[in-house]
Amino acid sequence: MKIETGNVATIAYDITTAEGEIVESSDISGPIAILVGAQSMIPGLDKRLVGLDVGAEETFEIPPEEAFGTEEDAPTNVVSRAEFPKDAKLEVGQKFQANMPNGTTLTLAIREISDDTVTTAMIHPLAGKTLSVSVKIISVRAATSKETEAGRAMVTPPPPPPKK
After folding, report:
1. Which of 33, 115, 134, 152 could be cross-linked to 10 through a Cys-Cys bond (beta carbons 3.0 to 4.6 Å apart)?
2. Could you read off the pLDDT of 63-113 as tens digits, one per residue?
3. How far apart, in Å, are the Cα atoms of 1 and each of 30, 33, 69?
4. What are the chain's domains?
5. 104-128: buried (b, 16+ CB within 10 Å) or exposed (e) per residue?
6. Predicted TM-score of the model (pTM)
7. Which of 79, 127, 83 is nearest to 105 (CA)?
């Protein structure tokens, strides 16, 4: 069965930066099942999976615009000026790190400052980076109605193969 948008594909994968830095690997976390077309992993990956069949092994280069974006197009958030220390000297362009509840560290860049608010861009650590994604298609199946409604695969993928 070839992958189509709306199928659930279970994949083994390696994600690296163009510089060779390992971002994530199913060798560590195990294969994942994704609802193709729901942009559940990296947006540009979904369209590259369409048409592949079980057993296919491919490597894709995914530009920043189809991965985690660029610093320039990072989403923004407006926060109260009161969230910052009163004596903080804030300047447009200033950057600082913020730890998110899920453990991810984001760079926040100040875009605008008013008397009451500060607008920051929320920059993902991989923003601006081209990614290399190697995949092996383990299985493909039609999504259930619950998966389609939820917008995600609802299965636990098989454990990774034993190391040789």
Report:
1. 33
2. 999 999 999 999 999 999 998 888 888 999 999 888 878 787 889 999 999
3. 22, 15, 32
4. 7-68+128-150 (3.10.50.40), 76-123 (2.40.10.330)
5. eebbbbbeebeeeebebbebbebbb
6. 0.77
7. 127
